[in-house]
Amino acid sequence: MPNLKSAERRMRKSEKRRMRNRHYKSMMKTFIKKVKNAGTKEEAELMLKKVYSILDKLVAKGIIHKNRAASYKSKLAQFVNNFPITQPQQA
Asked: Which residues contact 90 (CB under 8 A, 6 or more apart)?
């Protein structure tokens, strides 16, 4: 336990920030999974736009680094562009 009043306040603030950051990171991971588990390429592209928006917001808030966000964007775009054809073409 902290001895100083300022250290006590600092501890409360850091715990609030940790919980907030945890929420945002969890949300980010959930949306990334939604892109990867999309049924169709069109669905994946729609989710990709949402993920881009979320990643940009997290960078602006300082929760993740801009290079990490760029890496996620690049990998997800590559995944969507090479989206596997799950249903066979019928002639």
From this structure: none
Q: Distance from first CA to last CA of the chain, Å, rounded?
A: 71
Successive 10-residue mean pLDDT values, the chain, 91 residues: 92 96 95 91 93 96 95 94 66 51
How many H-runs (helices) and E-runs (strands) does the chain carry?
3, 0
Domains defined along the chain, listed by start: 13-81 (1.20.58.110)
Q: How far apart are CA 24 and CA 38, in angstroms?
A: 21
DSSP helix/strand/coil, 34: helix
Query: What is this structure's pTM?
Result: 0.78
